[in-house]
Amino acid sequence: MLSAQEPRTHDDVLTLPRMAVYSQRVALQEPSAGAFAMPVSALSFEPLVDVHARNMGESQADVTIRGGIFENTGYRAGAAPLHDPQTGHYSAEIPIAPAMLTAPAVLTGAENAIGGWNANAGTVAYQWRRITTSGMAGFAAGNYDTVRGEIYQGWVAPENTSVRGRRLAFDVSAARAESDGSRPWGESRFTRYNARAQLAGERGQTDLFFGRQDKFIGWPNLYTPYANVFETDDLRTTLIALNHVEKIGDGGDRLALGGAWRRNEDHYVFNRADPGAHNPAFATGPAWHTAETWSAGAEALVSTNRIRWRASAGFVADKIESTSLTFGRFNSRSYYKLMLAPERTWELGDSRELTVRAGVALDDTNRDQSAWSPVVAVELRGIGRRIERVYASWAASSQVPNYTALNSNPSAGLFRGNAGLGRERSDNFEIGARGVLGAWTFDTAVFYRRDKDLVDWVYSMSLPNARAASPVDVDTLGFELTARFSANWGDLVFGYTALTKDSDYGDATGMVDASFYALNYAKHRLTAAVVARPWRGWEIRLDNEARLQTGNALRNSRDDALLTSAGVFFAPSIAGWRGLRFFAQATNVWNCGFEEVPSVPAARRQWCAGVMCSW
């Protein structure tokens, strides 16, 4: 899990500006060279997350966790779940400036079963950051006619104007980025506007947020495998959210309440050269979709005697209007989740503690069968000087498919759906440990996840112009290791993940020649984040990833890859300009052509240089 704390600073090190996307496991605190910072920016080299990008992660990102697919990843802002009912391709469209959020926490295993929603592999959870009177502005330009800029300003009312010890605060943000893209017809245009009001004190915090983000994306083979087809996707995402957190007593108990309304409009064009041409995916030609969700969530952590109770409740209602997703049984759905997980801790002497947690969740919708999902976790802390904790857990979870899988035409078009798809279930078994060796800290886990009726998109040579939604049973065995070293001269973070899978498509097994998502995974993935501070005011940041992907008949590139993003930052010592810094950065330094999504061309090397000032 990622820590939400602020980065450490030293006298000889520049302080990252307020707008930075901060993650302890990622070195480069900047977005891809052709975009402004988005919540997904911090995930590209995250050891616990694998981002499969079309062009760049900020353009279109399939965020996968522990070998799952993008549909198995959930998102939260505060206590409210964020959800796109049309397709998980758009789940990461979160129109919030990262300056308003804490670093993302990646919930897996038992934590995902308790704190996640409709996400069997994992959940990316953000919290609302406390506003301070500060601001930043930045500008950069680069190759492929790239220009980007962003501005943020926060303001806190004077202390003598507080109401019952809580101070009113506001922050606003605006950002824009344009690029012709590293491939022909691969341009992008992004804009985002945010405003937030906050009432915060020592005991609690309330946030009211509005955000709007518009994205135009062009890319060859954005979603289809046809040669010389240049597709576009035009997205408009609006989010209104309200969240409240209140401390209960002084022992860490708390109550969190949240709600959100999200609207995502999508205009997809198969062939931009002839926007009205026949689209093999959608017989009506260009497709329009509008998906809306209303969500509410509540979490409570309450201690009574020796038992600590963790309870949560969630509700989501959605609907979709579409010119093409019209072949299913419904176009609206309501979801419900209730979770109760008490825990108890025993003092064993010699500073050792044993904690046992057991609970159960109920997931239900008005369109699908309900499911009960148990969770059991045991943790032992303070084992020795070098081992901080060991744990074991078993957690079940469940989710339901989206409208692209349920409502696409089952007998024609590129994307073929199945209105009969039902609830997906998962069991996750896990053991792990955290240790310390000198200046190094280590986290490791071995897990086995059993997915039943996971909805995958598959390819068959008997239907070369179609990909079909097909249920599959998948057994995933995985190993994770992260190691972190920190010193005054710099920081190192290494991550390693190994995965192996067994799949069973049932009666369709003999007709599956390739999997777009469930079997598109890295058998071995190594990440290395390097931060060096060679001289006063200078930082060199490198994010590296080496991977060996499992073979895929649809991939036109090699199955191994070495990816690097790099940045050089300089903060001059100028009186009155302490927050000024200059930077240059590059994405895909080695110009690697690896296709993260099979049949989708990789983005080429892209660079930019600019200046940022914080105050």
Automatic annotation (TrEMBL):
GO terms for cellular component: cell outer membrane. The lineage of its organism: Bacteria, Pseudomonadati, Verrucomicrobiota, Opitutia, Opitutales. It is a multi-pass membrane protein. Keywords: Cell outer membrane, Membrane, Receptor, Signal, TonB box, Transmembrane, Transmembrane beta strand, Transport. It comes from Ereboglobus luteus. Gene3D superfamilies: TonB-dependent receptor, beta-barrel domain (2.40.170.20). It holds the Pfam family TonB_dep_Rec_b-barrel. One of its GO terms (molecular function) is siderophore uptake transmembrane transporter activity. Residues 124-588 form the TonB-dependent receptor-like beta-barrel domain. This is TonB-dependent receptor-like beta-barrel domain-containing protein. GO terms for biological process: siderophore transmembrane transport. It is found in: Cell outer membrane. It comes from the Bacteria.
